[in-house]
Write a structure and sequence with these properties.
By secondary structure, the protein is mostly beta strands. It contains four helices and 31 strands. Pfam families: WD40 (PF00400).
């Protein structure tokens, strides 16, 4: 059974037409476009009857501060005092943010704030490991979060992108300023029959709307363009200034699980069809055109995560078989090797300096250090989660000394917690000669084939 199989899955996301969620969360808890197990309140939009979904209007209604979940927060924070007192561990667990219900699906860190998204539809904001603020979307669990200057963008299970901004009067209040596609663009596009595409048999939708869950969001370096990738096999390009959808690209034969934006107009996509593809962006007037360049990887196992280093010259791709392939850009992207550190699917990747972090369904986080000749060594394994590690975010440690390259790593898991780690590149170098022992396969959940973890719907 390979990663492209639709049977025998392990931990799966909810809301998929074919999938079931880890934790047995019922799909009828969602009221977005994609809950097909219950009757819709409105008929699907068709070329013959291009009426609007009332939920679109609801998402563009004025933000109600009373909806903020902060006053009823079920979170608690647990600090690891030993990490601050000077532990012998060079890579220390600083603390845990634990939630009574809801799996953690997305993270984003900026300055001294951490944003976390879960299947409760809440986005919570943390400062110094204490809950600082919170806000809630009308529908759709939070599958992706990115920060674009003063704006916070969230991608949801219902196929929508929501844009939030901190209130100028109170930095603990977040106002929703847009829902993509915007109501104005939605109405304008719905007037032309040529703007409708067939997404399923006898079902047509306008091309600017994702009809399945958003899997990830990414930004260009100057934050002028927003990329959204989806389980509907496409990625879409949005202009940040007016939130207009510029382009929709049918990129793969199956769900697009990951997308990262590189330098020089390069865009990388990874899919459940087992491929990693490169696209080149061309500016055409006021729009964009993305042209297929090449396929970097083609395999049976699903590609579940992508990451690119800060310099933009090393690309990493995690797969459902527990491997991480990587390519180095010299003149062209050249495949340099495979990182073998996990027993189950790699679900997330992050980079910081010369370090690479891989989170897996085996509940561990591998810390890899890249050498000057682009070799990688597993210098540490961070353990502490009791569920699959679903998302990672890293930022520079503000308390680090001038000559010390130290990072704060945040890890979100389906065990309903976020853990905070301190990782030093200097300490990682000291570990090179004694790699930590790797748990045996017997300590992990038994499956007839590890590739069964390669869900198209991770």
């Amino acid at each position: 059974m390979t990663g492209s199989s639709r049977k025998g899955r392990g931990y799966l996301d909810e809301g998929s037409v074919n999938g079931r969620m880890y934790g047995k969360l019922k799909k009828d808890e969602f009221d977005g476009y994609n809950s097909d197990n219950h009757q819709r309140k409105n008929n699907p939009i068709t070329m013959d009857a291009p009426h609007l979904d009332p939920q679109m209007e609801a998402d563009n209604a004025p933000y109600d501060a009373s909806l903020s979940p902060l006053s009823k927060s079920p979170w608690s924070s647990h600090m690891n005092e030993d990490a601050f007192a000077g532990s012998n561990e060079n890579d220390a667990l600083v603390g845990s943010l634990v939630r009574e219900e809801g799996h953690i699906y997305s993270l984003a860190a900026t300055k001294d704030l951490l944003y976390t998204g879960s299947d409760s539809k809440n986005i919570r904001v943390w400062k110094n490991q204490e809950e600082f603020a919170g806000f809630k979307s009308n529908s759709g669990l939070v599958k992706a979060i990115v920060i674009a200057g003063e704006k916070i963008l969230t991608g949801h299970q219902d196929g929508r992108i929501r844009v939030w901004k901190v209130s100028g009067k109170n930095d603990q209040q977040h106002k929703r300023v847009a829902t993509l596609p915007t109501l104005r663009n939605y109405i304008k596009c719905s007037m032309k029959p040529s703007n409708y595409v067939e997404v399923r048999r006898r079902r047509n939708l306008i091309w600017i709307k994702h009809y399945d869950a958003i899997s990830c969001l990414s930004l260009t370096e100057d934050h002028s363009l927003i990329y959204s990738a989806s389980w509907d096999k496409t990625f879409k390009v949005w202009r940040t200034s007016n939130f207009k959808c510029l382009e929709s690209v049918t990129a793969h034969d199956d769900a697009v699980n990951a997308l990262v934006v590189g330098l020089d107009g390069m865009v990388f996509t990874g899919s459940a069809d087992g491929t990693v593809k490169i696209w080149r962006r061309e500016v055409q007037g006021k729009g964009t055109k993305h042209l297929f360049s090449q396929t970097l990887l083609k395999q049976e196992c699903a590609v579940t995560a992508l990451a690119i280093n800060e310099e933009g010259n090393v690309l990493y791709a995690g797969s459902s078989d527990g491997l991480v392939n990587y390519w180095v850009r010299e003149t062209n992207l050249e495949h340099k090797g495979v990182l073998r550190g996990h027993k189950l699917a790699v679900l997330c990747l992050a980079t910081a300096g010369s370090l690479v972090f891989s989170g897996s369904a085996d509940m561990a986080i591998c810390v890899w250090k890249r050498s000057l000749n682009d070799d990688h060594t597993c210098v540490n394994i961070l353990s502490g989660h009791t569920g699959p590690v679903k998302c990672l975010a890293a930022e520079r440690d503000p308390e680090a000394m001038c000559n010390e390259r130290r990072w704060i790593l945040y890890s979100g898991s389906l065990d309903k917690s976020v853990k905070v780690w301190k990782v030093s590149e200097n300490a990682a170098s000291a570990h090179n000669n004694h790699q930590p022992p790797r748990p045996s396969l017997d300590q992990f959940p038994r499956v007839s084939s590890l590739r069964k973890m390669g869900s198209k719907r991770y």
